[in-house]
Write a structure and sequence with these properties.
Largest sheet: 7 strands, parallel
Oligomer: single chain
Shape: globular
Structural class: alpha/beta
CATH class of the largest domain: Alpha Beta
Number of helices: 10
Strand content: 5-15%
Helix content: 25-40%
CATH superfamily of the largest domain: NAD(P)-binding Rossmann-like Domain
Number of domains: 2
Distance between the termini: 17 Å
Bound molecules: glyoxylic acid
CATH topology of the largest domain: Rossmann fold
Strand order of the largest sheet: 8-7-6-9-10-11-12
Number of strands: 12
Length: 316
């Protein structure tokens, strides 16, 4: 059996995979190009992919022996799941192990943006810290502020729990999940009432551009917008326009569209925007657990047992 692994991940997990299959590793910190990916997976029985690898019908048709695509991520918008299902290919992901870690990072962005930690640090480092300023770097208190959580799944729900411990009032929008600890509202009300808005939805046709030219003006002029989900959930051009007009007090983005965000992108010109390079799940323990789970998923499918997390179990 042959498993293609599209990036260097934890050595111990690659060794564990190596006990059941030959491992063909893309031994780099940067992703393979589409043609390199096609070559990497050719003849493979399984693929351990990253969220930067586009896995579609064409890739699968080029390597018809593939039985499992195991994504090292909870998100799976890089994978055409119906195309996999049609071809009998199992799609597996790594939920749960990153829930708290990702929610903590969203909370960290909320604190950071609300209290201007990055602009303050930039100023200190740049020699602008000349005295104690009574009127500079003024932020927003979280206690008493309203947090609007868009998507009360695992991550959104953990964020909501943390936020209420900090004295925030939490409102949420979620067509599927209910939690009586928080107030369920429709989206229009969420945009209008929230002082801080945090996005926790998967990227789908319904959520692409959810925050855009129609919705941004509905937010309070001094609202803070946080995104740790997927970049295209926000229409980037509309966000830049909105920031140029002076709207929004701050924005914290762990995900952008495009990704990586080019060095000359206008979003970098706003001091009130904090950008992180998609690191919300990046702790030692969580990334190790993600490696473990993605390897468990591949091994299970290839050895005919039930994988811990499969999106399309009907193909098993
Ligand atoms: C990270 O963005 C993930 O989906 O796991």
């Amino acid at each position: 059996m042959l498993v293609a692994v599209t990036r260097r991940i934890h050595k111990e997990e690659l060794e564990r995979l190596g006990e059941v299959a030959e491992v063909r590793l893309w031994d780099s910190d940067l992703p393979p190009s589409p043609s390199e990916l096609q070559e990497l997976v050719s003849g493979a029985d399984g693929v351990l992919s990253l969220l930067t690898d586009k896995i579609d019908g064409a890739i699968l048709d080029g390597s018809p022996g593939i039985k499992v695509v195991s994504n090292f991520a909870v998100g799976f918008d890089n994978i055409n799941v119906p195309a996999c299902t049609e071809r009998g290919v199992a799609v597996c992901t790594t939920p749960d192990v990153l829930t708290e870690t990702t929610a903590e990072f969203a909370m960290a962005l909320i604190f950071s943006v609300a209290r201007q930690i990055v602009p303050g640090e930039r100023a200190a480092r740049g020699g602008e810290w000349k005295t104690w300023y009574p009127m500079r770097f003024l932020g927003r208190d979280l206690a008493g502020a309203t947090l609007g959580v868009v998507g009360l799944g695992r991550i959104g729900s953990h964020l909501a729990t943390m936020a209420s411990a900090f004295g925030m009032e939490v409102v949420y929008f979620d067509p599927r999940n209910e939690d009586s600890r928080f107030e369920k509202v429709d989206l229009d009300e969420l945009w209008a009432r929230s002082d801080i808005i945090s996005l926790h939805v998967p990227l789908t046709d319904q959520t692409r551009g959810l925050v855009g030219g129609d919705t941004l003006p509905q937010m309070k002029p001094d609202a803070i917008l946080i995104n740790t989900s997927r970049g295209p959930v926000i229409d980037t051009d509309a966000l830049v326009e909105s920031l140029r007009s002076g709207h929004l007090a701050g924005v914290g983005l762990d995900v952008t569209d495009p990704e990586p965000l080019p060095q000359d992108h206008p979003l970098y010109t706003f001091d009130r925007v904090t950008i992180a390079p998609h690191i919300a799940s990046a702790t030692h323990i969580t990334r190790r657990k993600m490696a473990q789970l993605s390897v468990d998923n591949v091994i299970a499918v290839l050895t005919g047992t039930t994988p811990p997390n499969c999106l399309n179990p009907e193909v098993l």
